[in-house]
Structure formats: C-alpha cells, structure tokens
C-alpha cells in the first residue's frame, strides 16, 4: 500500500495569503511525485491548469470555502467561473448552518443546483461535510442525502475546523455510501502512518499540505 500513497493525494494549499510562487512549487511537486491533483484557491485555477497542462495531475478548487454559508446563487457563480478557468474537480462546502438547523430541504436544493451543473461538464463533484463537527447521525444523513445526487466524493473536512479527518468518520461514511461514491479524507494528515490508516478505512483520496513529507517517509 505504501508505494501507492502518492496516487491518493490532492496536494493542497488553500491559505488566504497564498503566493504565486507557492502555486508554482505546488504544481511542480505534484508532477514530480505523481499526485492525483492539486487543490488551489479559485484565484489560482487558471495558473495551476497552465502549469500542469502536460501532466496527468488534475486541478481541484474549492466552492463556498471554508464555512459553506454562501448563498446557492453565489456557489453556482463560483462553480461556473472555476470550470471556465479549467477546474477538473470542485470541492464544495455544504451549508453547515442549514444542516445544524435541520434544514435538509435547503441542502437538497443546494446540491440539486450544483451537481447537475458540474456533471454536465463532466467534472468531479466533491462534497465537504465537515465531519469533525457533525454527529454520527448527521454524517449518516449526509450520506443518505448526497447519494441520489451521484456525487463523486464525500469529503470529511475543510481543514479549518478543530477536528479534521478521522478513521471513524471515514469508516462511517464508507459503511453508509454506495461503492460508486468515493471518500476524500482531509484535515490533519501529516504522516504516512495516518495516511495509510485512512486508506485502509476506505478513503480513496487524501487532501494534504504535507504531501511531500508523507511520500518521502516511504523511502
């Protein structure tokens, strides 16, 4: 399993002070280590797409990040612009205020606006549920809600909550999702052992900023 960890990784930088030179380094490392994708702020999608154009590295970006409470119309606009700029994968933060207020109808409306738009362009939909601040019951309800939308991935975390990816959350999601919906674990993945444990629990993608350190531990 260890030799395959690089192919699971979305090499990530999403801090609000990200510099162009950091994006250049991120993309160079992603190509060097054959990571699955780079995940960059929306401002840098076009740049990342140019830098990775001669590789198999996908370009991912975030929508409604990091808190998820943007209006549906705003998320639609962000999504359209990201795809115009060349994003291959869209990591969407759900409206956690709606979730915590038990407004599942709002969440259904949100995904029903976003998923078909993204799928019509044959791009990947990743739904960030911020599992670290959810109860098990809420995580299971998310699995039930997003399964009919046929999302590509359910993603644990933004990395901004106090609790990031956990094996428990990944295992719970895997147990309650159909096989065709993959799981992306992100938030707090800083060493090879944890990365491997999350893969064993059912994750098929890992969002990491410590990606190079993790893969170098294999040697």
TrEMBL record:
Keywords: Cytoplasm, Lyase, Schiff base. It holds the Pfam family DeoC. SUPFAM superfamilies: Aldolase. It comes from Rhizosphaericola mali. Catalyzes a reversible aldol reaction between acetaldehyde and D-glyceraldehyde 3-phosphate to generate 2-deoxy-D-ribose 5-phosphate. Pathway: Carbohydrate degradation; 2-deoxy-D-ribose 1-phosphate degradation; D-glyceraldehyde 3-phosphate and acetaldehyde from 2-deoxy-alpha-D-ribose 1-phosphate: step 2/2. Its main location: cytoplasm. One of its GO terms (molecular function) is deoxyribose-phosphate aldolase activity. GO terms for biological process: 2-deoxyribose 1-phosphate catabolic process; carbohydrate catabolic process; deoxyribonucleotide catabolic process. CDD domains: DeoC. Its EC number is 4.1.2.4. This is Deoxyribose-phosphate aldolase. GO terms for cellular component: cytoplasm.
């Amino acid at each position: 399993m260890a030799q395959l960890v690089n192919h699971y990784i979305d090499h990530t930088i999403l801090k609000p002070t990200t510099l162009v030179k950091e994006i250049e380094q991120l993309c160079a490392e992603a190509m060097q280590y054959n990571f699955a994708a780079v995940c960059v702020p929306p401002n840098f999608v076009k740049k990342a797409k140019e830098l990775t154009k001669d590789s198999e590295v996908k370009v991912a970006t975030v929508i409604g990040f990091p808190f998820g409470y943007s209006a549906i119309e705003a998320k639609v606009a962000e999504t359209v612009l990201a795809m115009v700029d060349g994003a291959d994968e869209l990591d969407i933060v759900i409206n956690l205020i709606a979730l915590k207020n038990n407004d599942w109808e709002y969440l259904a409306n949100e995904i029903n606006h976003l998923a078909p738009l993204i799928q019509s362009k044959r791009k990947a939909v990743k739904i960030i549920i911020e599992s670290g601040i959810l109860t098990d019951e809420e995580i299971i309800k998310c699995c039930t809600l997003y399964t009919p939308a046929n999302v590509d991935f359910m993603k644990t975390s933004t990395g901004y909550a106090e609790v990031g990816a956990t094996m428990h959350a990944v295992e719970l999601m895997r147990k309650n999702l159909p096989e065709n919906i993959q799981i992306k674990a992100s938030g707090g993945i800083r060493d090879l052992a944890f990365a491997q444990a999350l893969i064993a629990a059912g994750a098929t993608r890992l969002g990491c900023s410590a990606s190079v350190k993790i893969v170098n531990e294999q040697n």
